[in-house]
Structures are given as C-alpha cells and as structure tokens.
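Quick illustration, no need to memorize.
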Amino acid sequence: MAQKLKFSLLFVIAIVIGLALYAGWVLKSQGNAETYWSKVDNQNVKFDSFGIPTIKGANWSDLIRRQGHVIASERLWQMDLIRRKAGGRLSEWFGPEAVPHDEEMRLQNRQEIAGVAADNLPPDERKTCDEYARGVNDYITSNPGTWGVEYKIIGFDPEPWSCKDSILALLEMADMLTTSADSEAKSETWRRNLSPKWQDFLFTLNHPWNKPLFGEADVAHAPLPPSQEFLAPSPIVPEQHANVTVVEHSIVGSNNWAWAGPTGKFVANDPHLGQSVPQIWYAMRLVTAKNEWIAGVSVPGIPGIIIGMNPYVAWGFTNTGEDVDDYLEEKLNADGTEYLASIEEGSEVWLPITKKTFEIVVKGENEPRIVEGKFTHRGPLSSPPNLGNKRFSRQWLALRPEVMRLPVELFFRAQDLDGLSAALAGMKLPAQNTVAMDRQGNIRYQTTGTGIDRKMSGLRPVDAIAGEWIQLQPSSMRPAKTINFTGSPIMMATANERIWVDTYGHTWFNDDRKDRIMTQLASNENQTRSTMEALHLDTTGRFRKVVINWMIERADKDPATKIKIPDRWRTWSGSSMDDQVTFEDADLAEKEMTKIFLSRVAATFTSEDDKKTDYFAPMRRAWVLTVLLQEGNSGTEIFGVNDEELAKHLVNMLAERKHAETYSFKNRWKAQHPFVAGIPVLGKIFAVTETEQWGSGDLVLAEKTSFGPSVRMVWDMDKPMESTWVFPVGQSGHVWSKHYKNFHELWAKKGVTNVFPTDEQALYGF
C-alpha cells in the first residue's frame, strides 16, 4: 500500500511538473496578452493595468478583425466551450457523461439552425461576423500550442471559427435568458389540482409593488380566492409540512437605471448571470477616431460591444422575462407518423412528421452514437417530464433562424437616442429592457427582441393548434418611452419586473429590487457617481422587513404566551450587512410559512403522488406578500392558519436555531472553472478564492453562490473619463496570466476602476 501511495504521489508530482514546464513554455512563447501584442501590433492594441485592451483601427472591419484576434488570444478555450455546449458537441471532449446534454441540443437541430441563421444575415452583419471569425482564425493558425492549457489537458486542438459559431454563442445567451417551457411544465401538476381561483392566486402575475411603465395592473395584489374556497382551519403540526419542497426559481437579478439632475447624468447597469471562470464578459475599447469609438463588454464568440457607451449615448440591459418558449400538445395519428397541422375551413389538415438523424461523437468510443429527432412545423417533438406520455412540440423563438441577428456596428455608429433605437430594433433575440441616456441627459426605455402575437397564453402547455403563434411582431410594436431632461431630476429603472400589462401575461420576477432602486433614486436630488456605485451594492430588502414586522405584531399580541421577540428585530434596518442574523431569520421564516401554506393546499390533492410534487412558481413572493399585507388574520385564514399561532411557531423555531456560520459565509462565491471539480488535485490550479457575499435574490445586490452581477458599471455622461466598472474575476482565460483573476479581490472589496485609462484621454476627445 505504501509503495502504491508513493507511486501515486510521484505520478501526481510528475503531472504538476509537466504542466508547469508546459506553462513556462507557453509564457515564454506567448507571455501575457500585453507581451504578445507588444510584439504583434503594439500600435493598435494596448492594455491597461487590468488587462483590458484598447483596440484601434482605420475602420470598423479593422476593429472587428482585431477584436476577434484579441479575444481568441485570451479566451479561445471558453469560446470553444460555448459553441460546443450550444451545439451539442461536449461529448467529443468529455466523453459519455456529456451525451444527455448533447442529445438534447442535437434533437433541437441547433447546428442546422445556426448555419441557416448565419447564411441569412444581412450583408453588413455577415461581413462583421466573417471579419471576427477571420481574426479568431488568424490567432489559431499563427500561434500553435498557445491556445490555452485546457487544450493540452483534454488532448485536442481548436477547430477553425466560423460565423455559424458566433450564432451558436448567441444561441447560448438565448438559452440562458429566454427558456421557460420546462419551468411551465414543472407547475402543471399543481395547476391541474387547483380550482381556477386558486390557480390565479398561487400562480399570480400581480405583485403588490409593481408599477408598470406601460398600462395598469389588473389588481393591486395577487387575486385572493373567494372565502368559500378558503381551507378549513387546523392547528400547525410541523411534521405535516417537513417534507414539502418549494423549488427556488433561478434568480434573475439584473438592474439598470438612469438618473439625470443638477449634479450629474448617469447610466448604471449590473446584469446578473450565472457566475463562471472565465467570466462571461470580455471588456474592451474600440477606437477609429475621437468621435468614433465604443467602450463596453462583449461576449467571447460574439462580435462587437453588447453593453456600453460611445461618444453620444450609453445603455444598459436587463432581461424582460418575456414568454417566448411554449410546449404545444400535438395530436398524432395511430402510428405516430403524422400530426394534425391545422384546421382549414372545418377540415383537419395532417402532415408527415419530419425525421432527422444526428451523429454524436463521444470521446473514447470508436463509433458515433446515432439519435433520431422528430419535428413538426412548430418545433422539435418530445415528451417533457410532468406532462405524462403525451407528445409536445417546443415552440421556442430561438429555434427560428430569422431572429438570430448581429446589428453590432449600429451601436458603434449611433449618434443619438434615435440611432441607438435603430441598433436595438435589430436585436431580435434575446429580448432586453434597455435604459439609455444621451449626453444631454435625455432618457429612453426600449424593449429589444421579437414580440409575439398570440391566440392564447403560453404560460402553460396548451393544444398545438390553439397555442401556435399568429405571427412575430415588427420591432415598431415594441414598447418604448422617452423622458426629456429639462434640469429637474428625472430617472428610470428596470429590474426584471413587469414592464407592461398584456392580454396573455409574460413571466417575470419580484418587484422588490425595482421598488428599492426607484425609492433610493428619488430620495436624493443630488445624486453622484458614488451614490450610483453604492446603489449597486445595496443589501436592504423591504420584503424581509415586512416578514419581521409581521412576526413582531402577531407574536406580541398575547403577553401571556411569553414569546420573546429579539430586540435586534425591532431596530433592524433591513440590510444583510447591518445584521446577518436577522436577515437570515426573515429568510427562514418566509420559507417556513410558505411550506406550511403549501402543505395544506397539497393535502387537498386526490393523488398521493401529486401531494409530493414540488411547487414551482417564479412569482411566489407576490402571493406571500399579499398574505402578509392583509389586515388582521384575513391573510393566513386563506390557508386555514391562525396568524398568531403561526407567528409564535416561527419565533420559537428561530429562537432554537444555531448561528454557526454567517449568512455571508454560507453564501460565499463558489463559481469555478470547470476543471476545478472535474480534475482531482490539479483542478485547484484553476480555483478562485471563495470570498464572502452579502446579497440575495430580492436585493439590488442579487447574488448567490454561483449567480450574481457579471459586471458593475456606471457611465458618467458629463464626465466620461470618470466612468467606472469592475468585474468578478479577470480578463484573461489563461490560468497563469496575471489577469486570470486580478479583479476578484477588488470585486470582493466593493471597489471599482476607471473605464478609460488616464493616459488615453486625448484618444477619445475628452
């Protein structure tokens, strides 16, 4: 045994030495990005102290070609991973474990869709896409072996990049931001067991704090079930709800806002995504002349700047949460070869189901695996979980090649808000809430993406013919609103809340963050860049204060019970940074009361299996808040619960809990490079320090262990040189680069750095 252990240790040491030698060779031959570009093109590509490049060019084509080359020099393996993940080719690298993912992607025919989309781009966008690919391939062919240590570890070389691959990267972004059909399917077991009134309540689209930019909310809160449908009163028995599972929806926490007043004009944005190493954004500045430049962030693999600022305007994005992803139940013939496509003048029209075969190459296997996909004209066929053995087409906007567009040059050339609107109109997917400002302080909201004309809501799986979309809306129908600056403070914000009221409803999340942002912006007529940066870090939650105050008011009613309310509850500000224990008390209390409420509802289901089904609804907090805001006991009696009894139960439960770890420690950063978990021992080379985090999904600083703000930026329209940003990890994807994680410490300390280097001021005409 000792001999085997000794041999194992020697083997590990040999690998470490081998990798170190390889790293030394890479660093010697390539060095960091600054060293490489100082040799290749030091006149047109220069880096600041954080490794963020300024790229100069004579024209747009020069810029985009160099952009592709620069990003490939730093993030090629990440780009490769993105295109393989989106297109279903991970098994070639990682073997059989990746096959289920690849099958799902292939059965949606993503490779063909991306190819058609690339071929159908408008000529100017196709030229941009090809120039970017040319730059990437210039790097691949001219720098063999320096593409990244990951390639050496997995034993592969990169394939050439193509415009199709950039479309796959765009499709991956759409996957992160626009999928909802599987979420809707998860809720079906609950929905079919509820009366229509209870469905409207537990799957509400009305949040008490929502203030739509367009239209009026139907009601001011989740619509309560009628009193005759209230559940029968019964005492709280902890064992009855101990096993109820309330599925937490993946948090969406992007914020953007603009404020103009006597002390300045600012645009702030902190788009929230799944944290990753390398990070999702690559920051840069592209310059042709003093009046032609753009600074901001790009996605590795996609040309141009996505979020940023040019000499005239600045803009930020949040996700709309719009429903563009449906399951449609198909009617098939007896042998499953045809489907009911439509009903024309009272007659059924049947069409053959299209079949396509796909090959999945699996590392370590001699022959590719063959899978067969079936398609209707509405989308790929499948049998999703929770929907029985029925067959459904997936009607997802991202599977339509015509919506894959890359109008990035228009962002570079926009000279006013109207010019920016033209660029935004070309963004067909994914739909985003855009808040923008010009240098004069005028603010505009605009929805990007593609709208859908429907016959009925798609928030539930529905009959295919009834649920098939009527048409895609032109960009001219997308909501837009302008506020002109005349000297008095003006402001606008979005934070994944409901922006407009429509007939069929769309998904979004709680309104807590938007409510907090607008309250803070309106509280001070003398906002500054510093107050904008501080708002990014805000950890005060109005909802949690409601929970705490509700418990105080109810548990204090009967002195004879001798329920002791912690003094810290009464003085708490609502911020996690001020009092992590009380913050977590509120969080645990909310979860406990929600389980109690839902366990009583589930007990009314007729099927024992249905009673055990997880509850899943993005707007859960809307009805919980509605319950807590009702007068007296009128909220909890909906569920047959006495509010004083519930409050006492919660206080006693919280009094018994132990505080071994702080909330910020339990919520610490855990996002890592894929190799950290995938490669024993050596994977730690890629690791990033697990720093503490104080945020939560309902706070402006919406962060979880592997989800959170992907950048924090403030564009200063009066003093552009004072614009700031900061990133969670680092610019480089090379683990031995000094820029691999050099932002992480600054990020953890809530610091920022300037967007524009001081020595480049003249370059931009400031």
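Confidence is low (pLDDT under 50) at residues 1-14, 27-31.
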